[in-house]
Structures are given as structure tokens and as C-alpha cells.
């Protein structure tokens, strides 16, 4: 006789309530398929002469989708800059980086790890447009950001050159000079109009 057909999940979980069973055609329809719907399903055909089971694995796949993008950054020469991008997807996306459209490889000052990029001791040559690329077998997405590298001339506005009075003959005096500057400046000292030169004192 014509068998009756039923459906079940082999892992013991319940078939989602949203699923629709079409008994006449032996069809199981699952609308809006999600990760929790994935698993091993069984179709059971049965009549008075016996029973047979067919199994099928349903797997959830999703193209990458951004969770965290990168944004434009400004860095002074010799500073460090870090970016991180993260994407969801099934299977888990892999990441790669581009600079001005060309592949960016880890080397020296440039460190890449999954979705993170760190550039230490930034130079003017590091300026440009960067892209984080996330991809799996179902899709590829791009996030772009520009790195601007700025140079700053020496600024003494936040540096205090202290006026020190020597109390004890033969004592030691230390005067610190730390202006804000990028790239790092060279230093010279004057006493009055005369350039100070290093000697035993």
C-alpha cells in the first residue's frame, strides 16, 4: 500500500513549529532557515509491509556580514596605529588587507592577525587607503579607511624649562626639554648666545 510519510530530527530535537509538512508529496518545508534549524533530518516511510528511513544533513551557511568596520585614522610620524574589523558568517570568514588596492603583507613594522592590523613607528609612506576584506565561500565584503600621517613641528607650549637656582657649589642640575614634535627633533643647547658643547661636566 501507499506508505505514510513522517519527519523527525535524528538528534532528538523537535522539528521547528514554523516547518510545514506536505503529506501528499513527502515534502518538508522550513521557511526562514536559521542556524538552530541545522542538523540531521530523517524522512520515515511506512506501510503494513515495513518501514524505510532516508537521512539528510541540513547545514546553515551565511555570507560575511560586518560586525565591526574600520574608520579613518590620523597618526603622527613615529606613532602607532591599529585597526580591527570583525565579520559574522558561516563558515567563519577569513581576513586579508589591502593598501591602495594592493595586498598588504606582514613585514617589519606591519603586523597582521586575523582582522587586526597594527603599524608601528608610522612614516609618511604609510599614508593611504586601507581595506579590510572578509570572505568565505558564499561571499566577500570590503571595509575601507584612510590613514593620514601628519608631521608636527616642535611645540614648547606644554613644556616647562625650569629656572633653577644652584644652592650648593658642585651640585648637579638637570633641565628637561621635551617639546611635542613629529618626527622626533634633534636638540641643541645654548647658554646665552653661545652653543653649549659637551665636556667632562
Name its key features:
single chain, mainly beta, Immunoglobulin-like, 5-stranded mixed sheet, 3-stranded antiparallel sheet, 19 strands, 0% helix, 49% strand, rod-shaped
Q: What this model shows, in words?
A:
This protein folds into 2 domains: 4-58, Immunoglobulins (Immunoglobulin-like, Sandwich); 63-151, Immunoglobulin-like (Sandwich), CATH 2.60.40. β18 (190-191) and β19 form a beta hairpin. The strands form 7 sheets. Strands 7-15-14-10-11 form a 5-stranded mixed β-sheet, with no helix packed on it. It has a 3-stranded antiparallel β-sheet with strand order 1-4-5, with no helix packed on it. It has strands at 4-9, 20-22, 27-29, 39-47, 50-58, 62-68, 73-76, 81-84, 86-90, 94-99, 102-103, 110-113, 116-119, 128-136, 139-150, 152-155, 180-182, 190-191, 194-195. The chain starts with a strand and ends in a 6-residue tail after the last strand. The mean pLDDT is 87. It contains no helices and 19 strands. With 201 residues, the protein is an all-beta fold. This is CNTN4 protein. It comes from Trogon melanurus. Keywords: Disulfide bond, Glycoprotein, Immunoglobulin domain, Membrane, Repeat, Signal.
Amino acid at each position: 500500500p501507499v506508505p505514510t510519510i513522517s519527519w523527525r530530527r535524528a538528534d532528538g530535537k523537535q522539528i521547528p513549529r514554523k516547518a510545514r509538512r506536505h503529506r501528499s508529496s513527502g515534502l518538508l518545508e522550513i521557511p526562514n532557515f536559521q542556524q538552530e534549524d541545522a542538523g540531521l533530518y530523517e524522512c520515515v516511510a511506512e506501510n503494513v509491509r515495513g518501514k524505510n528511513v532516508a537521512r539528510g544533513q541540513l547545514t546553515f551557511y551565511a555570507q560575511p556580514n560586518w560586525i565591526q568596520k574600520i574608520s579613518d585614522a590620523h597618526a603622527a610620524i613615529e606613532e602607532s596605529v591599529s585597526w580591527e574589523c570583525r565579520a559574522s558568517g558561516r563558515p567563519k570568514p577569513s581576513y586579508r588587507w589591502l593598501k591602495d588596492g594592493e595586498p598588504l603583507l606582514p613585514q617589519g613594522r606591519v603586523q597582521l592577525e586575523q582582522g587586526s592590523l597594527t603599524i608601528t613607528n608610522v612614516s609618511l609612506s604609510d599614508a593611504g587607503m586601507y581595506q579590510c576584506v572578509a570572505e568565505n565561500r558564499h561571499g566577500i565584503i570590503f571595509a575601507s579607511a584612510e590613514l593620514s600621517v601628519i608631521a608636527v613641528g616642535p611645540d614648547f607650549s606644554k613644556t616647562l624649562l625650569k629656572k633653577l637656582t644652584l644652592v650648593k657649589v658642585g651640585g648637579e642640575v638637570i633641565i628637561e626639554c621635551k617639546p611635542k614634535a613629529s618626527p622626533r627633533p634633534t636638540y641643541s643647547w645654548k647658554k646665552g648666545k653661545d652653543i653649549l658643547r659637551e665636556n667632562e661636566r
